[in-house]
User: What shape does this take?
Amino acid sequence: MQKGTLIEFWLHGHRHLAVVDRPKDNKHWIVVDHLNQAHTINPRQITYTIGPGYTTAEIPAFQAAVATQLDPDSLEVAWEILVEEGRSVDPAAMSTLLFADTEPVNCYAAHCLLSEDKLYFKQKGDVYEPRSVSQVADLKHQATIAQQRQQEWETLLSRLQQALAQPGSVDWQASDRPRLEALERYATFKEEANPRDATQAQEVLAALQRPETPEAAFDLLVALGLWQPHENLFLRRSQIPVQFPPTVLAMATSRLDAPPADADRDRVDLTHLKVYTIDDISTLEIDDGLSWEVLPDGREQLWIHIADPTRWVSPGDELDLEARRRSTTLYLPTGMIPMFPPEIATGPMSLNQGQVCCALSFGVILTPAGAVDAYTIVPSRIRPTYRLTYEDVDEMLELGVQAEPEIAAIARWGMVRSQWRQSQGAIAIHMPEASIKVQDDEVTIQLLDNSLARQLVAEMMILAGEVAARYGQAHNLPLPFRNQPQPELPPETELLQLPPGPVRYSAIRRCMPRSEVSLSPARHASLGLDTYAQVTSPIRRYSDLLAHFQIKAHLRGETPPFSAEQLQEVLMSVSAAAQEAVWVERQTNRYWGLEFLRRHATDLWQGLVLRWLREHESLALVLLEELGLELAMRFDRPVALGEQLTLRVAYVDPRNDVIHLREVDTPTVTDLPKVEQLA
Assistant: This one.
């Protein structure tokens, strides 16, 4: 290569012109640029040779001359000619086409235009081939989309900055949703998020100079006002729908405006009965009521009236399919997510005080010992007389209110019934139960005591379930029977060594097998019943609604809407959704339990050692007795089951499900209760 040859090579990602000075060795040359700076290059690094006869002083003028010729629009005109001719070109040929000569300045300008072009030409060796018309059209379309995306990206960043500066001031656009949803999924699923979502979310976080972590994504969504500080990630990870589709809401409205014909035209009129509904004060879906009467022959009859949503819902309609998809009403500390639209669930479906309501009523006569002597099941009309809370009923029973003898009679039969089930092998487990509520960001925890009112309602619901199952079994009716295998409990002598109360109940609870839903009736061990089906919550539990569909059709003399095979198929999908709902409820309650403890980090709590989780690691389950919360705790000293402790929160992080408790006062080993420990 001659000294004085002007060449192009790339330096730090940019074109660079230099004049060849001398060889350095057999493989390298020394070239000098316009700043008289020397560079050592390999000939393979040369991307274009302009020609000999140049000095470094001439480079700036040469570059200025080239700059005047760099018109990208002229390349399109040349492409139109060449694509029609089907001819490839090199820089010299393109210079001739564009500038009508092959002067070094124009040839180099043509080289720059061709090598920088990504639209009209593609390089093949030393020549450039024109792309086809369709290829150019596709590339232009892609470029337009890329430009649009870049503009949307820049606009999104601008809106994000505005929202961070002034929360609530931004109207998000449809084009923002993909990035914001990716951010939500990254914060929700964390390391398990889709890689594409993670990448998009991390790009947003990086652009806002925030850590590229799921926790930072969560904090950003809160700062933007899109999420609450205590956003329910368990609910977001689930498939549980929060909003009702428009078609379902439309059907609910139409059923309210124009009620369908009642399939049970011969409903029994029970409006003469005094009906008590007994629930928590916050209950909105009122699905059961109780009555008591004395028959002409002197026998006493209990009535358990269950709300009849099948008056408003038919198998396979929009309301039914949506309820099936949800499977249950979800009860969370922050509120409920209903199975049916609220306007119909808390309206005509519910047993509202003073209104004539449709019900499925179970009339039961018990033997003096508490066994079912006779029963009847009828579609009915009732008029609930009183809406009472559990506290109201407990007070009435305590005071012996003479004006309401029905309440005392129902409570008496509830106790008889409980004793009868105990004689049949029922297994009672009375563990403290916490009710966690969040109202206006205030977290409260209330212990639900096993009061007489709660016991009598529970016994009546269990009674209705036994009667429904008996009816299904007697008529060979496909129903979702609920069964529970007999547990293998520790020997009584071993249980008696444990402190009575929560410790002993915890040991029994640990041995209890899960209840199962089956089309075949079988014993329910913990209830002490030979057959049982849940039917008392059809507004909020889809399996109960299924039982109503089946029983009511049979009462009318019709073929049940679901065959055994169809019922089994529906139950499989419903059971999976119900299990997910239970998981969300459990995890959400735990989160708010930990949040309550975080807010009361300096408070002292009375703890009780329930059982060992891993005794060799000194890891036990403790019960915070005032709160009904069960938490794992690791000890650094010997402890005994049933030992009472004074505890304080050492560290708690609700979002990451971490809590560490510590003892405030540590007794000596000699002070430990002498209790046989049952792992």
Q: What stands out?
A: The chain has 19 helices and 25 strands. The two ends are 89 Å apart (CA to CA). Confidence is low (pLDDT under 50) at residues 667-679. The CA atoms of residues 264 and 579 lie 33 Å apart.
